[in-house]
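[User]
If only I could read backbone structure tokens as easily as an amino acid sequence. I have put the entry right below:
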Amino acid sequence: QVQLAESGGGSVQPGGSLNLSCSFSSTTSCMGWFRQAPGKERERVALLWSDETPWYTDSVKGRFTISKDNSMSALILRMHGLKPEDTGLYYCVAKPWVAAGQCFVIPGGDFPFWGQGTQVTVSS
């Protein structure tokens, strides 16, 4: 069982920055972030495979950076240039025993471990 706990959400103006942190009880081979906006489907945002290879959805490329600090047992999502469409509830996810190349195509429903979510609101 992997326990995940997000923090760092908040309200910012467009163009602002936020850093999300996910504290984990143990690391797994595939970890990342999903988000869900009101009235929209859940969306994968950024993923990180065990060799530190990242993946980003097109809409956040160049603005978001995902990383892992194993010494702090934390998965970090640094967000810059935030837009109103980035608004949503951000979830940390984890799945162990993932083969190379599979991490970035796993459906959200196949991640067995989820955090409780942290709200990000981008509004002027």
